[in-house]
């Protein structure tokens, strides 16, 4: 079996790996610091907290819906390493703006600060929109065919480990420290981005369509007619719709159901991130470098089982005394704390096993000069699905549905994902 970790010694992979790791870390550090600050220091109403979380998530994905087609065209037309350098330069300015918003909100200018932070989230979504197609599309260009699955798994694992570190830090450091750190990390990411080897255009130069709506329509239509791409993109998109619901309700659930502080919220999200990262690596070992969806249906069915278990565990959780929150030590020592942590971990591992092979389908089904546009088409559909998920959270919350009950909806969505993955497996294997 190909040892994917050996790629970390290669210049054709390591600078990209580090650059995307730092970018995902920075993005998550800023957004988590913002959400935790708003949840624990600004709002005191579960409905408002959940609405704010859904709004920030929707703003983060809106650029994917509008600009992914343009990003894919540019990545397949120009040198991908050059686009990386431009994107990482923009990140520095975005983080300066977002940090100013954090500091303004902390200083008491709450409305101004929240507005600036939400603006930074929108700009970070734009940053990720243009970087996203590259981080997957560049892999078939720099790696051998039998290295692509391993490289994809490492990229996915690194993404979730960066989420882990960013999430933990956001809960443990001050707002001022977070504001400074995101600028420093952006500067380091700019430096490593300049070390990514050239990845020039492979096919004919495209005629760029700058209309976001017609470009997106044509891009998706040109991709979705390939059956296994159609099924893979639908399965990935439904998975991220599930993820959007979980992201929106999770901080609120930790605060108001598990009655724990922001550090426990960080710890819980970190456990989830570790699980996805482990699942991303495990699936490469199970498949031995082959690209197949054979384990995806069972993985997402297991995910549904664990989500249902988590819902019932949350219902039976003994809350902290009125007006108090559990800290990390209290939560760890809580009789139900270890069970909740283990269930979260199991949800995440099964999710990682489910989704990584699907991403590998995107970059290996088409020719190398079309990979960025294929990933971009996936991002457009993903963004639409995640937007639906964010709107669902707002509507369902207004109807009085609790986070515990919303988890049951997530489990039902997993069943549909399993059906899509099974259809993909039958179509390809």
TrEMBL record:
Keywords on record: Cell membrane, Membrane, Transmembrane, Transmembrane helix, Transport
InterPro entries per record: MFS, MFS_trans_sf
CDD domains: MFS_MefA_like (cd06173)
Main localization category: membrane
Compartments reported by the entry: Cell membrane
Record's bilayer topology term: Multi-pass membrane protein
SUPFAM superfamilies recorded: MFS general substrate transporter (SSF103473)
Gene3D superfamilies reported in the protein's UniProt record: MFS general substrate transporter like domains
Membrane-crossing segments per the record: 20-43, 55-74, 86-105, 117-138, 158-191, 229-253, 265-287, 299-317, 337-362, 374-396, 402-421
Protein's name according to its UniProt entry: MFS transporter
Species of the source: Sphingomonas floccifaciens
């Amino acid at each position: 079996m190909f040892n994917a970790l050996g790629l970390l010694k290669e210049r054709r992979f390591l600078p990209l790996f580090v650059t995307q790791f730092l970018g995902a870390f920075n993005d998550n550090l800023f957004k988590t610091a913002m959400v935790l600050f708003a949840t624990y220091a600004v709002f005191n109403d579960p409905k408002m907290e959940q609405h704010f979380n859904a709004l920030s998530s929707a703003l983060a994905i809106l650029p994917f819906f509008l600009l992914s087609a343009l990003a894919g065209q540019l990545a397949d037309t120009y040198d991908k390493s050059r686009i990386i350098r431009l994107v990482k330069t923009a990140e520095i300015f975005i983080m300066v703006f977002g940090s100013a918003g954090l500091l303004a909100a902390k200083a008491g200018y709450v409305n101004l600060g929240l507005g600036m932070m939400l603006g930074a989230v929108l700009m970070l979504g734009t940053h990720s929109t243009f970087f996203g197609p590259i981080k997957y599309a560049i892999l078939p260009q720099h790696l051998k065919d039998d290295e692509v699955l391993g490289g994809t798994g490492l990229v996915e694992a690194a993404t979730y480990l960066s989420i882990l570190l960013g999430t933990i830090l956001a809960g443990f450091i001050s707002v001022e420290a977070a504001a400074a750190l995101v600028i420093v990390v952006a500067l380091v990411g700019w430096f490593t981005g300049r070390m990514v080897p050239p990845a020039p255009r492979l096919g004919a130069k495209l005629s760029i369509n700058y209309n976001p709506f017609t470009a997106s329509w044509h891009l998706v239509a040109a991709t979705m007619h390939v059956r296994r791409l159609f099924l893979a993109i639908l399965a990935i998109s439904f998975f991220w719709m599930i993820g959007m619901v979980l992201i929106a309700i999770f901080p609120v659930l930790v605060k108001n159901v598990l009655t724990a502080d922001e550090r426990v919220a960080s710890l819980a999200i970190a456990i989830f991130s570790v699980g996805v990262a482990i699942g991303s690596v495990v699936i490469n070992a199970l498949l031995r470098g082959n690209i197949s969806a054979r384990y995806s249906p069972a993985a997402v069915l297991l995910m549904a089982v664990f989500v249902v278990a988590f819902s019932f565990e949350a219902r039976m959780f003994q809350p902290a005394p009125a007006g108090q929150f559990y800290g990390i030590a209290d939560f760890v020592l809580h009789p139900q704390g270890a069970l909740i942590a283990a269930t979260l971990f199991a949800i995440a591992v099964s999710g990682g096993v489910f989704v990584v092979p699907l991403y590998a389908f995107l970059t290996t089904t088409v020719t190398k000069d079309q990979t960025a546009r294929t990933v971009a088409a996936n991002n457009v559909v993903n963004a639409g699905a995640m937007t639906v998920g964010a709107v669902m959270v707002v509507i369902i919350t207004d109807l009085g549905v609790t986070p515990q009950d919303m988890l049951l909806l997530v489990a039902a969505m997993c069943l549909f994902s399993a059906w899509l993955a099974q259809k993909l497996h039958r179509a390809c294997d």
